[in-house]
Write a structure and sequence with these properties.
The complex is a heterodimer.
Chain A lengths: L4 H13 L14 H5 L3 H15 L14 H12 L1
Chain B lengths: L1 E4 L9 E7 L6 E2 L4 E7 L2 E6 L4 E6 L6 E3 L3 E6 L102 H10 L16 H5 L12 H16 L2 E9 L1 H11 L10 H13 L7 E4 L2 E4 L5 E3 L1 E2 L5 E2 L2 E2 L7 H16 L2 E3 H5 L3 E5 L18 E5 L3 E7 L2 E15 L5 H16 L5
Helix pairs in contact in B: 5-6, 5-8
Classes of the chains: A mainly alpha, B alpha+beta.
Chain lengths: 81, 439
């Protein structure tokens, strides 16, 4: 399965945080923090990295739209299009 | 001339492996400069000098494991001349002055260098400050070293299967290897030098994973051994008592949300930082929980260097210090936490951060349990635990409503304090968290 540009970016940033988890092994519609075993600091770093990469504000109020891999990628798609 | 020695990076460390020489002979050093890095059971730790001068020479080759207290380098004080005009690459000093293991058998970094019977000195006291400079006058004769001669690599230990750092060529200044790969290599007992990167010039975790695990790889990692040693000592020596207290985090959470609205991600706060600040602030009034218990005596610390327990993905835990957590403002403390976490996750932090924490905060994060009861990290005397914040039914203004709550716990040393004071401390933290805007 090929990933969109945003999903690839998301996967890359997740790999930096959780190199031990393979994207192929996770449920992309399940809670991202559970799937990748990341804590609030990791999540903030993820948001920071993607915000920088795509020049996005990524406010906390939007965090609920970043709860799963698929939702997160869709959110990035929407914001970057 | 003084010796720069392998520092003790915590009570559980007995030996370390020199993996980086960041300063070359002839370069000037000043107090606080990082002159190299040492690999210990806890990862790669940068080592700092505590004096001014010029690095005369390194006494230990890269990849060599030496016990705590063994000289690593010679430092000349300003204006001092080297004792002998030795070219920098000559053989190290004669064996009676340099208690390093014989060069021919360097211990590979992954072999457990620890021997119960060669324990150097009581490792209680945090880093034997290299500023106790056993200053040798610049005469031809040298004072005998104070440190006991280091253990030579034990003869009957199984011969390492992996080639140590090659001797012929000068070791690379720094291996191009990702931190995750370095950790995995250590866990599997693989010397990264023996590996070739498939993808390019940087060794990654994938390269490591492609390598079959070595037969001799220890299942229990060094890391686990280090934690076991410290925690066994804690439970053996420290009469712990425990308290717990439910705390409402609604106000603190609302404060964080308000603060973060409009802030870019780089400047956002986490609830954990607010809690850390509340603890540091509360501790100012309760000095008997903040300091070190050394030589049958409690030495309170003026500043709160809050150890912050950080779990490491590949297994293990460290609690390096957030220095001066009491006097940093909240934003600064948050940045310190981010910086520290990033460096720890990358497997790299500073020596002082490991040895100088005066109290510890352990928090299991959002996906943890309601409460965590810590084990005190000697020589500290207290550890505050923070459970996972979650919505719980709670009585608020005489109505049962859903409130964001957590359980704070305290494990403290009965040699220094009693439960009534501990209770006051937890209540003081609670009070701070109810008025987060004052933090």
């Amino acid at each position: 399965m090929t990933l969109s540009q945003t999903a690839t970016a998301l996967a890359e940033e997740l790999y930096k945080i959780a190199p031990d988890i393979d994207l192929d092994d996770i449920d992309r519609s399940a809670d991202l923090r559970e799937e990748y075993d990341i804590d609030s600091m990791d999540f903030l770093n993820l948001v920071t990295a993607l915000g920088k990469r795509f020049q996005l504000e990524m406010p906390e109020a939007d965090y609920p739209r970043m709860q799963t891999f698929d939702d997160f990628a869709a959110y990035l798609d929407e914001k970057t299009s | 001339m003084s010796e720069f020695r392998m520092p003790s990076l915590g009570s559980d460390m007995e030996a370390g492996t020199l993996v980086e020489q960041s300063v070359a002979p002839g370069e000037t050093v000043k107090r606080g400069d990082v002159i190299g890095a040492v690999e210990t059971q806890k990862g790669v730790i940068e080592i700092e000098v505590f004096q001014e001068g010029v690095l005369d020479k390194w006494l230990v080759d890269l990849g060599t494991t030496v016990p705590v207290g063994a000289p690593l380098a010679m430092i000349l004080e300003a204006g001092e001349k080297p004792q002998e005009a030795l070219p920098p690459d000559t053989e190290p000093l004669p064996p009676e002055t340099v208690p390093t293991p014989p060069e021919t058998v360097p211990t590979p970094p992954d072999v457990d260098p620890v021997h119960p019977d060669t324990r150097p000195t009581e490792p209680d006291i945090a880093p034997s400050p290299p500023e106790v400079p056993e200053t040798t006058p610049p005469e031809p004769t040298r004072a005998p070293p104070e440190v006991p001669p280091s253990p030579t690599v034990e003869p009957d230990s199984p011969a390492p299967e992996i080639e140590p750092f090659p001797e012929a060529e000068p070791p690379p200044s720094r291996m191009r290897i990702t931190p995750a790969a370095r950790r995995l290599a250590a866990q599997r007992g693989i010397d990264p030098v023996t590996l070739v990167s498939a993808s390019g010039d940087v060794l990654t975790r994938r390269d490591l994973e492609a390598t079959p695990p070595s037969k001799s790889s220890p299942v229990t990692t060094d890391f686990r051994a280090a934690i076991a040693a410290a925690m066994s000592r804690s439970k053996r020596e420290i009469p712990h008592y425990y308290l717990s207290h439910d705390v409402d985090l609604t106000a603190a959470e609302a404060f964080v949300t308000t603060q973060n609205a409009g802030r870019p991600p780089t400047e956002r706060l986490l609830l954990g930082a607010v809690c850390a600040k509340a603890i540091a602030t509360a501790l100012k009034k309760y000095p008997e929980f903040n300091g070190h218990y050394v030589n049958d005596q409690f030495q309170p610390s003026k500043a709160v260097h809050l150890g912050f327990a950080i779990n490491i993905r590949s297994g293990g835990l460290v609690a390096p210090a957030l220095f001066d957590a009491d006097s940093q403002d909240l934003d600064a403390l948050m940045l310190s936490m981010r910086d520290l976490t990033a460096r720890v996750r990358a497997g790299r932090f500073r020596a002082r951060e490991l040895s100088e924490a005066t109290v510890t905060l352990t928090s299991l994060g959002e996906r943890g349990t309601d409460a965590v009861f810590g084990v005190i990290y000697p020589p500290q005397v207290a550890i505050v635990g923070m459970g996972a914040p979650r919505l719980r039914p709670a009585l608020h203004e005489n109505t049962v409503t859903a409130r964001l709550q957590t359980t704070l716990t305290l494990a403290a040393d009965h040699r220094v304090s009693d439960g009534s004071r501990g209770a006051l401390l937890l209540r003081a933290i609670d009070a701070q968290l109810q008025k987060p805007e004052t933090l």
